Amino acid sequence: MTSIINVNLPEQSYEIAITSSSYANAPSSLDQLGQQMASLKLGKKVLLVSNPTIFKHFGERAIASLTSAGFEVASCTLPPGERYKTLNSIQKLYDIALENRLERSSTMVALGGGVIGDMTGFAAATWLRGINVVQVPTSLLAMVDSAIGGKTGVNHPHGKNLIGAFHQPRLVLIDPDVLKTLPMREFRAGMAEVIKYGVIWDAELFAQLEASKRLDQLRYVKSDLLYSILTRSCQAKADVVSKDEKEGGLRAILNYGHTIGHAVESLTGYRLVNHGEAVAIGMVAAGQIAVDLGLWQKEDTERQNALIQKTGLPTQLPDGVDIEAIIEALQLDKKVQAGKVRFVLPTEIGVVTVTDEVPSDIIRQVLRGM
Amino acid sequence: MTSIINVNLPEQSYEIAITSSSYANAPSSLDQLGQQMASLKLGKKVLLVSNPTIFKHFGERAIASLTSAGFEVASCTLPPGERYKTLNSIQKLYDIALENRLERSSTMVALGGGVIGDMTGFAAATWLRGINVVQVPTSLLAMVDSAIGGKTGVNHPHGKNLIGAFHQPRLVLIDPDVLKTLPMREFRAGMAEVIKYGVIWDAELFAQLEASKRLDQLRYVKSDLLYSILTRSCQAKADVVSKDEKEGGLRAILNYGHTIGHAVESLTGYRLVNHGEAVAIGMVAAGQIAVDLGLWQKEDTERQNALIQKTGLPTQLPDGVDIEAIIEALQLDKKVQAGKVRFVLPTEIGVVTVTDEVPSDIIRQVLRGM
């Protein structure tokens, strides 16, 4: 079974292709990479970018698929982890692009999680003022979130994703089978974004997640539910991005849980807490802020928090994080306007509102309670 | 007198405003910067980027104009010259943007020549995934060419402008009076691009240049002619860019003289020969290639070369540049497709054609003749 989800944009639309070989005897998505790219009439040269572990698992299959479709493939790996998401790594990609004489019609293929996707996207956005990028996400987080929507970039030593560009992929290819090698903690991190879509956009997805007995490990998630998680999450992201490519309005709702989440990630040096865990903490905080402001029912916050707990994600601030430091870090958020911090707050399951009128004292009080 | 030239683009159009106080008792363009920006409803925070010399001449006036229009202005300078057009300089701008808490609604103002404009534009393109940029070009080259059209970027150690992005300015403000402090060699460099517009687009401009007795120094150029040079060149660039924002087709013609020009610049380390001089050499070469291929009249090449000489620009390869090294460097050009080098070649004054079918032997033979 293959689901195709369209991301419709004024300048260039593209498809998210999700194929599960568990459902059909069809070849797995990953083995169709070359064929799918060939149908887009991209130039011959491809640079496949991955990290060493992912490359070991899937690199050869990806290269074989590309080569048999007629592409000329070079490949490279970058060290894994958010702390290598720096301009230095991008400079390495530039050097490799130069060595391999990539041209404007060439394509960088990101085979990996969010870090690889963001960096490859940014390098593609800024090499020769923009070449093609294809996203082949291998983590749940990247599949349902970062690979879609064209946000690319790297971290500044003092803030996450401060350096970047919008650069839409030509194709997003999702192969659910590759999740089998995903470490448990990474799976849970991806589930944070899935729960987010339930809260901000898709009450039916939220209900499906509630109905599942366990969500803390992939092997307890039935393949029907996994397929639903992938397609519904991608559809939610595609819907929002199609309506607002560059975060002028609606797209802001995707930052639910991310305002405080980013601050927590940054203050823990992008190591102690991963992105999904930080978003989980941020959703708990935002939910409580919404309750304190009289916007959301207490019972709905509790349903949200129960789902987060069932997934094995944190609902409390990590030890040693200073609350005043969080308040200070919020001022660095990209969404700050005229010094006002923007919060996405739920009003019911599946519906959120955006406000920059949250008093600092309410934020402090909520964080102290966590 | 103020001329407004519109650059019409699908996502965001903008104006090129050229005011000459020599014609009216109106305040000079530079002193209207704040007012003009205020009318665009940009955010309060502005980072003015310049180089030390330009800042000494015009920085205070620009800041005064911005401040009196209600903007909160920070400023910084970067060292002058093409060899500082690197990712390192961009990192400095990121640090300053962070220190000054620039927001998405904030604006970077580039007050300077092409190098300052390209770097400020690229930093603005990639800070917070894109903030506003306003171009206030102070060199002739930047006024008629680099400040218009949204090309931004920096050099890779092995090639010019290999790293970059398209990022359109919100406003281009041209004050002809600031040219009075421009060194003679820089003036001539800008004239190379002006002559280019004459050859590729505007036979009337070409004729006006021919009619002027001297073109080698600004003080010999009558103010009528200077105004015509600025408005006609900007109009030519705006026409082409409006029809083809991202170099999909027509925009290629702006690279007349740039194919061999870029190679020469790169091989001389961006020092011995400046951009305009390299373009002049490239136009002489391209003109001769066009003649050798039977596309252009010999007399017209001679008219072009006479104009280049009258401006005091070089028509010969600099000593010590190896012809085979040029042929090799051409392969690194951003416009290479499937290994084929693209040339813009004149067919009459004001009309060019684009081809990737120039045999290497013709290129060699032409270069040997220079």
Automatic annotation (TrEMBL), chains A, B:
It catalyses: 7-phospho-2-dehydro-3-deoxy-D-arabino-heptonate = 3-dehydroquinate + phosphate. Pathway: Metabolic intermediate biosynthesis; chorismate biosynthesis; chorismate from D-erythrose 4-phosphate and phosphoenolpyruvate: step 2/7. Residues 190-336 form the 3-dehydroquinate synthase C-terminal domain. The gene is aroB. Binds 1 divalent metal cation per subunit. Can use either Co(2+) or Zn(2+). One of its GO terms (molecular function) is 3-dehydroquinate synthase activity. This is 3-dehydroquinate synthase. It comes from Nostoc edaphicum CCNP1411. GO terms for biological process: amino acid biosynthetic process; aromatic amino acid family biosynthetic process; chorismate biosynthetic process.
